[in-house]
Amino acid sequence: MNSADKIPRPLAPELIEKAWSGREAWRVFEIIAEFAESTERLIGIRPAVSIFGSARVAASHRYYALTEEIARQLSDAGFAVISGGGPGLMEAANKGAFHGRSPSVGLNIQLPHEQQTNPYQDISQSFRHFFARKVMFAKFASAYVVVPGGFGTMDELMEALTLVQTHKIRRMPVILVHEPFWRGLMDWIRGTLVEEKMIDPEDVNLIQVIDEPAAVVKAIFDHYDKRGFESTAVEREAQLNL
Description:
Layout: H1 13-42, E1 48-52, H2 62-76, E2 80-83, H3 89-98, E3 104-109, E4 123-127, H4 130-139, E5 141-146, H5 151-165, E6 174-177, H6 179-194, E7 207-210, H7 213-224, H8 233-239
Parallel strand pairs: 1-2, 1-5, 2-3, 3-4, 5-6, 6-7
């Protein structure tokens, strides 16, 4: 048997651990680069609204048309629209904004089974890490609009509510669209979370449930009517600690 035919010996456990630790250390630089690049690309898009919704909804579904119309009206009203950049209701959000007056932004995530990037994006930013992507959704948003969706949508909704509740970001509209879809969740929040004192009764007021696109736009403008869209110095300082 010559040297080329020899079976390679497995690495010793201590060498495997050292190699893994080295990769973890370098990963920190990848994360820093992801934050720096995305911040640089998105810094000029304010005011913006982040829209969350299902990737599984077909273009023929009524939720798609509803989301597209909301995004179009927000865009024409002067808001950049930020979505997850994928298919379904993310595509509907980008499409509505793309055909409106203001930028359509997609924050795309790299997944083991690659997420399909929709074509309706003026600004497209790709992320490897979910947490970096979540920060960008929060950092540049003046409001959250949540259309029907599954686990990912619920994750983004609860993240947004937690950040507002804990004052990590400024108070902003968190709007659930299409009341029948969200009715069970709202009943559970009022009937279980409040009743068992898991949240304060006034925390329910962090959420608005609205059905009509024009009413969504109006609710956002009403919220900022007296204070304006610019963050205060205190709010900007808090946001640095996201």
